[in-house]
Design brief:
single chain, 12 helices, 434 Repressor (Amino-terminal Domain), 6 strands
Length: 275
Amino acid sequence: MARTPRKLTPDRSARHLFGADLRHRREAAGMTLEKLAEVVCYSRSHLARIETAEHVPPPDLPARLDEVFGTGEHFARLYAIARHEVHPDKYRRFMELQAQARVIDEYAAHVVPGLVQTEGYARALFRVSNPKASPDAIEEMVAARLSRQVLLTAEAPPDLSIILDEAVIRRPVGGPAVMRAQLVSLVELVDTATTTVQVLPFEHGEHALMSGALTLMTLDDDTNVAYVESIATGSLIEDPETVSARRRSYDLLRAYALSPSKSAAFIRAVMEAPS
């Protein structure tokens, strides 16, 4: 006996609407989940969970669905809204501002910033920080993190500058293979038209930002905001004087950090060092 499809609730959120519309378009096209899975290269179970809003859609799925169903940018537009709903409310304003920023400057003391994490690196972090979470919950978190990275492949991406403490480069997150893939990805971003990555070596010593992570954002109207993050908390700073002080601290670190070319050589040396 065929299992009765789970009732959908498209009025609950954009993510639920995405799933309900996916099922509606699929059924209208006379496609089974198995057939759609073959076409878009995702598993039947993954698509089923997206239809019932149990999983956030992965970043590359909306475009594939629009192509399959001939819906223009319908699913892409829904996804742009739905992808924010998996993040806690306290981070939503930060993410909204980040999406509007034309310049993003980041300093990371301990881990690679989320905007440039690889899938394996992100998964390893979520597993260790959420030891009781189910595999499905972990995959949901990974998909949410990767969804933020669409900013960097947009038609007009922001200019992104990242300063990484040497500890970020040397700590082997996820094991040798995962960490190597992450370092390879960072090298590719070291010096491009829209991205720079610099390493702050241990030899610099103490500095004003060493206790956490800082994100500085310049919006289209030249408004500047900052986001300061520690282990379990994050604070959005919009007061101009305080933001200016954080900017000064960041600029000093940029002056002391290795140049992009030397940073690339440094990262490669860490990759090639015997484990």
